[in-house]
Amino acid sequence: MGNKKTKESIILRELDLVVGDSIKKEDLEKRLDLNRRKIINTNLFVTVEVKLTQIIDNQVVIDIKLQEQWFLLGYPIFQIIDRNYAEWWQRGADLSRTTYGIDLIHSNFRGRAERINLRLESGFTQRIDVGYRIPYIDKAQKTGVGFSLAYITNKNLAFKSLYDTLFYFKSTSEILRKRFSGAVFLKKRYGFYDNHTLELRFNNNSIADTIAKLNPDYFLNNRTSQKYFQLSYYFNYDFRDNAAYPLRGKRYELLINKVGLLRNDDINQLEITGGYSWYKPVTKKLFYGINLK
């Protein structure tokens, strides 16, 4: 098949064809293309071919050929911290106002489509992110779990804005702001195209007394810390031919995010977002898409 690392169970999970199935001849080509699309949308393979190799006495043999992606990738990080290049240039185009680092991702750990990521940043912002997810922990391959942790610090911080201008305070030794967040999530996939994700997150932000004195309303009421839980539910129905570069199909999304679950949480906010996307060909080489949110 070409899956040197990926376990067969991860591939077979995407197929709605099993040995002994009865399929109408006129539906066969469409079914094969749908199964090819589902395998390519795992984002584990560069190319996928699903085709007939033999037809004998109304029995068919289906051959699946795959070319796996590079699963271990590293991306360099370099970005300015100002809101745009014009503002960065007005502030002297100082390289100390940039962050740099690396983002490491393994998207198929142990061949089970597990994803591990590590993000390290230095410069204006010190940051470390780690995350792990496994798509299936049960035999039915419907339930997945994961977690993420992030810790971010700053010694140079925008403490207020006035007339669209941000005012910064810089310390040579004291950390002016610390941010920590940790999350766990549960994912359910009942069919081929639907995904349900429930995530519980805790956020803990704190600032130095210096920042609170410069701006008592940074966290409101001269406080130096901000803590809160949040719970989010995300639904995604994705029936596109290629999730990375869609040309045909449709997609539905729904996000319900509640920030502040406990009475003593410092933030209380509810967000509901819905989205719809539709892609269709006009000619063989021309396509159009509609996105509503």
Secondary structure: elements and pairs:
Blueprint (H helix, E strand, L loop, with lengths): L7 H5 L12 H16 L4 E12 L2 E10 L3 E9 L4 H6 L7 E12 L4 E10 L1 E10 L8 E12 L1 E7 L2 E6 L6 E12 L5 E14 L1 H6 L10 E16 L8 E11 L9 E13 L5 E6 L1
Antiparallel strand pairs: 1-2, 3-4, 4-5, 5-6, 6-7, 7-10, 8-9, 10-11, 11-12, 12-13, 13-14, 14-15
Q: Tell me the overall shape.
A: elongated
Show unreliable segments.
Answer: none
**By helix and strand content, what is the structural category?**
mainly beta
User: Biggest β-sheet, characterized?
Assistant: 11 strands, antiparallel
Order of helices and strands: HHEEEHEEEEEEEEHEEEE
Number of helices in the DSSP assignment: 4
Radius of gyration: 24 Å
Largest sheet, spatial ordering of strands: 3-4-5-6-7-10-11-12-13-14-15
* End-to-end distance: 40 Å
Using DSSP, what is the number of strands? 15
| Residue-averaged pLDDT | 94
Helicity level, as a percent range?
A: 10-25%
Give the percentage of residues in beta strands: over 45%
Word description of this protein:
This protein is mainly β and 293 residues long. Helix content is 11%, strand content 55%. The protein contains four helices and 15 strands. The strands form three sheets. It has an eleven-stranded antiparallel sheet. A two-stranded antiparallel sheet has the order 1-2. The model has no long low-confidence stretch (mean pLDDT 94).
